[in-house]
């Protein structure tokens, strides 16, 4: 658990990498398997720690789960258990996505309030009020959210205050089995939501407006198991794109639809990179110091908050001053404190950070606070002089399969240290 990465800066990353399935998709798809009795098969699953953690959660609910490399088989019983195992759920936030399927299937769900990343307060009010509109009662009891339905969920018109990814997913996975039509306004439009809708439709769900901010769901009585391929991880792919630009390297990334990263790649072009896109990948080349670029994180298709540490990383070594604005999570700038240790010239003002680029960062020991901050620190260490030790890399292991091996194959000097 206490592993760290030793990163020696200075290498220009060059070569090709293939990204596997998206972490933020696979966990929701695994939960969606609860909606149908029988065996659902998911292909292109990433080999990251969160997948076995989700396996535990589903096993606690009565499913049989087999992980065979990148394929996961989930066999759901006629009636899953409604109470998710407290300890299994508390270990990672994404487990809250079992709330919608359990409420729909069992008429009751008990899911511990999740722990997870230290990126700000992450309430569940929109998840709860969506389910309540569909006829459930919800309350927080002994550290868990408890949802109950007297009979069957019914369709409803629901408008989200903010296009929350998790709330959209829980409402979708509840509404597919509800009685009647649900119209969800201000829904999230992330590619992972589209992936979930596609899987649900292949299970027999009736969904319209997929990928738009108004999703209409006509509830059906029963869904059947399916076989589905997880979309590529756009955040991992984006991490490689920023690694190429920061190290003045040349990386070709396969396994991802470049449209899922459109704005992030456009920003790199403005910074001076050459970007080529293909059907299932892209190439980023950079041969000079990046220019400063401003960023604002927003729900998709805006710039992803999960790539905000990479935006800060490139801004830290850019020519000029950048302003980075975080609009999704309030505490995500904790990462900036670690960047200051690496010598970055950055100051935080509310949800903005102003960064005056310097030629080179300066190596030291730094600590990961969440998955993306951890990966962002590794990129920063790649452009620091000397050797940086990135601690608490168990965060990175939750989201980046074979990170060290991939970095090494691209020419980075990095090794894992077991403490
Ligand atoms: C998901 C992703 C995460 C990504 C985020 C935004 C997974 C496992 N995680 O997280 O990597 O950074 O989307 O793209 O898929 N909010 C409320 N009330 C609610 C729900 C959310 O106030 O009921 C707020 C949150 O505190 C946050 C914002 O809405 O400020 C966005 O959160 P949300 O889109 O729900 O993110 P997650 O689904 O938790």
UniProtKB/TrEMBL annotation:
Q: Name one GO cellular component term.
A: cytoplasm
Pathway listed: Cell wall biogenesis; peptidoglycan biosynthesis
Q: Which GO terms describe its biological process?
A: cell division; cell wall organization; peptidoglycan biosynthetic process; regulation of cell shape; UDP-N-acetylgalactosamine biosynthetic process
UniProt binding sites for UDP-N-acetyl-alpha-D-glucosamine? 93, 306, 328
Question: What EC number is given for this enzyme?
Answer: 2.5.1.7
Q: Which reaction does it catalyse?
A: phosphoenolpyruvate + UDP-N-acetyl-alpha-D-glucosamine = UDP-N-acetyl-3-O-(1-carboxyvinyl)-alpha-D-glucosamine + phosphate
Q: Name one GO molecular function term.
A: UDP-N-acetylglucosamine 1-carboxyvinyltransferase activity
Looking up Pfam families in the UniProt record yields:
EPSP_synthase
Residues where phosphoenolpyruvate binds: 23-24
- Keywords in alphabetical order: Cell cycle, Cell division, Cell shape, Cell wall biogenesis/degradation, Cytoplasm, Peptidoglycan synthesis, Transferase
Annotated active site residues, numbered on this chain, are 117
Report the locations given in the UniProt record. Cytoplasm
Q: What exactly does this protein do?
A: Cell wall formation. Adds enolpyruvyl to UDP-N-acetylglucosamine.
Q: Which HAMAP family match?
A: MurA
Q: Spell out the protein name for this chain.
A: UDP-N-acetylglucosamine 1-carboxyvinyltransferase
Look up and give the organism this protein is from.
Corynebacterium poyangense
Recorded name of the encoding gene: murA
